[in-house]
């Protein structure tokens, strides 16, 4: 679904504010009716209790949401009235004289209470501070390239031979490579700059290129692209001055291209860490949930908002959020119990859950945290605070999650995670009726590489293949490190013939990569077996079939791709 522009989001937020105002008018009409009934003589205790409880919830709702919709004064006055009613709600009998000498209705519903409650209506039209403070920030926030964007590498001011060599070899690693000069860099468009790119230059040009990149950074509000230089200086002073001038890495000649490719990848990924994440919001107040959703979407988050607690497990499975914002009081459902229910599922044990609540009582908050949530954000939450708080928590959650689900050498998904992904796609293609393919990929004669050139070289080869797969496959394909030198890939909505073509190109590209070893340069090949997921009853059967096809490929001479087929 296309994302809304800032202008569209602003229009929608204004619509929500208007709709909140109309609802608040209705709420206040209702409050007036309740006040009138409470003033009646001869009202039974049960009726009084029911009315006070409803008034309390109505005031609680207003207190938690009015500030978000630009009615902060109304919200804080509603909060005070809500707090006055609280002792009646908490007392054993709910209302009336409490045996232990607790409050009685007359102590709390004083003429002053009635007067203040009736005054709430006037606050609908008072000019008040808005919680939407961050409008001015948006233009200055750095534009961060999306994680899956193809990485462009600009070779700038390099000697002819080095430029030609790097263009060829880095293209084999899956980068889009161009040779340019400083003026070409200066003319890069905003669109290109918003994508992921790195610059490689010689050390003598670092100063001028670094200042050009700073200009682009200021002009387009991008984060600094990685600047890598080539050179042969080993002395501290020279290295210090290169770092000071803005270089992010120094590579000595002769260049070790797989290492260089790996460094480009890492530097780009480091800069991508500021990418906002996925957020699931559950708040039974639909307008409030929608407001939070729009504000976070405007800040670049991928947000899913629901209002019905019964949808939570389905929404979690679909959205797979980095964090969840959870309302505490949702009609007859409690957010605290919903958090406990979410933790029944092992996969959500580590999901950070942040309660959004008007509850200010620390002991109640602590009790709720003990039941399954991680943090409290007290309503009303300003837009600015919401965005920043969610940014920090998403970033941390993503970092922790990466450690848990990704292999440290290649940053690809770990064995158990890729297996789950294969199962998910198998279920999806049976449900949707499309064709998807699973591939098993294995490096050829890899034991010899390790034995002859050492494990360090072996590790470079594994990393280079991981990087190449990341670049050459679609962002929707899922790649995992299945075992030591074995990889598994899920290619959704892709037939085995299409997979043979794509992976054939990966085979060709990989065999052209040269690895520097103590005995000179070497190349390594790979073999792959593919099988269509929907041809099998289970994901495991499909995986075994891909493994079988890989075995056939190895037998047939390696260096290529073979599809599984039924044997006669
Ligand atoms: N450097 C390195 N080597 C690894 C890693 N994981 C597994 N290996 C090595 O990968 C090699 C796999 O060797 P084999 O399974 O015999 O297969 P092969 O030599 O590739 O032979 P074929 O698959 O038949 O082409 C073993 O030497 C493992 O030690 C790793 O993380 N780093």
Secondary structure layout:
Elements: H1 6-39, H2 45-65, H3 72-90, H4 105-108, H5 111-119, E1 152-156, H6 160-172, E2 176-180, H7 182-186, H8 190-194, E3 197-202, H9 206-220, E4 227-230, H10 236-245, E5 249-251, H11 257-272, E6 278-282, H12 286-298, E7 302-306, H13 312-319, E8 323-327, E9 329-330, E10 333-334, H14 335-342, E11 353-357, H15 362-370, E12 375-378, H16 383-405, H17 415-432, E13 437-443, H18 446-453, H19 455-472, E14 478-481, E15 486-491, H20 496-511, E16 515-517, E17 520-522, E18 526-532, H21 539-555, E19 560-563
Parallel strand pairs: 1-2, 1-3, 3-4, 4-5, 6-7, 6-8, 8-11, 11-12, 18-19
Antiparallel strand pairs: 9-10, 13-15, 13-18, 14-15, 16-17
Bound molecules: guanosine-5'-triphosphate.
Guanosine-5'-triphosphate binds at residues 409, 442-447, 450, 455, 458-459, 462, 484-485, 554, 558.
Q: If you had to describe this structure to a student in words, what would you say it looks like?
A:
One of its GO terms (molecular function) is diguanylate cyclase activity. InterPro entries: CheY-like_superfamily, Diguanylate_Cyclase, GGDEF_dom, HPT_dom_sf, Nucleotide_cyclase, Rev_trsase/Diguanyl_cyclase, Sig_transdc_His_kin_Hpt_dom, Sig_transdc_resp-reg_receiver. It catalyses: 2 GTP = 3',3'-c-di-GMP + 2 diphosphate. It comes from Marinobacter lipolyticus SM19. This protein is α/β, with parallel strands linked by helices and about 575 residues long. The protein has four domains: about 5-130; about 150-270, Response regulator (Rossmann fold), CATH 3.40.50; about 280-405, Rossmann fold, CATH 3.40.50; about 415-565, Alpha-Beta Plaits. Helices cover about 50% and strands about 15% of the residues. It is built from 21 helices and 19 strands. It has a five-stranded parallel sheet, with helices on both faces. A five-stranded parallel sheet has the order 7-6-8-11-12, sandwiched between helices. A five-stranded mixed sheet has the order 14-15-13-18-19, with helices on both faces. A hairpin with a 2-residue loop joins strand 16 and strand 17. Helix 2 runs antiparallel to helix 3, helix 11 packs across helix 19 and helix 19 (about 455-470) crosses helix 20. The protein is elongated, with a radius of gyration of 30 Å. Guanosine-5'-triphosphate (GTP) binds next to strand 13, helix 18 and helix 19.
């Amino acid at each position: 679904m296309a994302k809304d522009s800032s202008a569209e989001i602003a229009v929608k937020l204004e619509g929500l504010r208007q709709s909140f105002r109309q609802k608040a008018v209705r709420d206040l009409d209702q409050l007036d009716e309740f006040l009138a009934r409470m003033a009646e003589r001869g009202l039974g205790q049960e009726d009084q209790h029911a009315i006070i409880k409803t008034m309390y919830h109505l005031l609680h709702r207003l207190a938690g949401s009015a500030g978000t919709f630009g009615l902060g004064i109304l919200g804080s006055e509603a909060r005070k009235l809500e707090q006055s009613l609280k002792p009646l709600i908490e007392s054993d009998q709910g209302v009336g004289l409490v045996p232990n000498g607790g409050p009685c209705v007359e102590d709390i519903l004083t003429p002053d209470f009635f007067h203040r409650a009736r005054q709430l209506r006037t606050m609908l039209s008072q000019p008040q501070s808005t919680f939407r403070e961050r409008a001015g920030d948006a233009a200055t926030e750095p534009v961060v390239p999306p994680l899956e964007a193809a990485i462009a590498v600009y070779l700038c001011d390099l000697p002819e031979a080095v430029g030609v060599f790097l263009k060829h070899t880095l293209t084999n690693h899956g980068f889009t490579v161009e040779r340019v000069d400083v003026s070409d860099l200066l003319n890069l468009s905003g669109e290109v700059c918003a994508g992921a790119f790195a610059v490689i230059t010689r050390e003598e040009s670092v100063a001028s290129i670094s200042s050009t990149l700073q200009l682009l950074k200021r002009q387009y509000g991008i984060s600094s692209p990685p600047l890598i230089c080539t050179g042969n200086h080993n002395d501290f002073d020279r290295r210090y001055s290169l770092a000071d001038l803005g270089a992010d890495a120094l590579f000595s000649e002769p260049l070790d291209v797989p290492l260089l490719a790996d460094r480009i990848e890492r530097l780009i990924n480091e800069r991508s860490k500021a990418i906002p994440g996925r957020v699931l919001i559950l708040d039974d107040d639909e307008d409030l949930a929608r407001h939070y959703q729009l504000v976070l979407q405007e800040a670049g988050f991928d947000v899913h908002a629901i209002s019905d607690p019964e949808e939570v497990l389905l929404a979690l499975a679909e959205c797979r959020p980095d964090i969840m914002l959870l309302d505490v009081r949702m009609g007859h459902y409690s957010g605290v119990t919903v958090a406990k229910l979410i933790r029944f599922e092992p996969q959500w044990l580590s999901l950070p859950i942040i309660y959004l609540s008007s509850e200010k009582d620390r002991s109640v908050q602590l009790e709720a945290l003990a039941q399954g949530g991680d943090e409290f954000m007290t309503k009303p939450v300003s837009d600015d605070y919401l965005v920043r708080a969610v940014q920090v928590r998403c970033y941390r959650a993503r970092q922790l999650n990466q450690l848990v689900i990704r292999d440290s050498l290649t940053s690809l998904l770990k064995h158990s995670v890729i297996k789950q992904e294969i199962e998910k796609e198998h279920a999806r293609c049976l449900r949707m009726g499309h064709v998807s393919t699973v591939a098993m990929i294995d490096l050829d004669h890899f034991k010899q590489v390790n034995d002859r050139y050492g494990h360090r070289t072996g590790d470079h080869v594994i990393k280079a293949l991981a990087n190449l797969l990341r670049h050459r496959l679609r962002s929707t394909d899922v790649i995992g490190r299945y075992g030591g030198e074995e990889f598994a890939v899920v290619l959704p909505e892709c037939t085995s013939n299409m997979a043979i073509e794509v992976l054939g190109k990966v085979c060709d590209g990989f065999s052209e990569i040269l690895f520097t070893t103590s005995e000179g340069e070497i190349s390594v090949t790979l073999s792959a077996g593919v099988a269509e997921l929907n041809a099998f009853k289970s994901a495991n059967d499909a995986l075994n079939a891909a493994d079988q096809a890989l075995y056939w490929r190895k037998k047939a001479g390696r260096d290529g791709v073979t599809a599984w087929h039924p044997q006669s």
